[in-house]
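Entry:
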Amino acid sequence: MAGFQVDEIVTALHQVRSEWRESQQRSQAGGERELPSREVIGEVVQALTGALFPMRLGPTDLRQESEDFYVAHTLDAALHQLHVQATLELRHERRRTPVEAAQLGAEAHERIRAFAAALPGIRALLDTDVLAAFHGDPAARSVDEVLLCYPGVLAMIHHRMAHQLYRLDLPLLARIVAEHAHAQTGIDIHPGAQIGASFFIDHGTGVVIGETAVIGERVRVYQAVTLGAKRFPTDADGNLQKGLPRHPLVEDDVVIYAGATILGRVTLGKGASIGGNVWVTNDVPAGASVTQASLQKAPRGDPCQDDAGMS
């Protein structure tokens, strides 16, 4: 069988890459890789997950008397890898205003050091999420089953780490961590979302939580729930304005059932219950119960009445 003639394709691809790099001002003096690696970050998250839960998500041959040794060794290796990836992100971010490599490395080290210091708090928060799933699902037989099997818990392990990276101004690393969970679970949580303790995502597939969402404690959501933006303001040139608060505020003890869509910077009051397949674009009072039937019967101007759609 004759080989493929790829020379012309290689040349054409080189031309396309060169044109794109020139248009984006992406030329590099040294020609080295400038972006973090999805593969490496995935390995780091897997290692950190094992360090957080060594006897359940660590290596199968681990014994409890070796637990601290394993955690120390794993953390040291994972944090060094993460430091390299953070340095790449900072270098990419400042590619148009070159900074000395030593300074970038020192800044990355400080941020990863702060991330490492936050890991005990992340573990404590995850314990509340695991217990919330166990107590909130009658089918759960043990907290071990929840930790090993539930996609919502896996998504939250990633999110708790991603959110800390986001807070430390490493948004690209944070987004890569979040997208690893998205690919595995179908749960899409932006790393900027603020989520309180004891958060339970039941089933989970299709859940979307936007960047500026703020979620209180003991909140439960089901599959296909969206906490999204209603509209996207633009500047005078028609460009999207980024970073504006545009996603819902969910107070403590709220339950949001399957398929509900909550859009815009609205507030779901403490203890509210949002029924399945409901579309909400206005505030919901504390303790209120919103269902399809209540929306159909509500007079115009009622705080639970849908007033528009996606725009």
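The radius of gyration is 23 Å.
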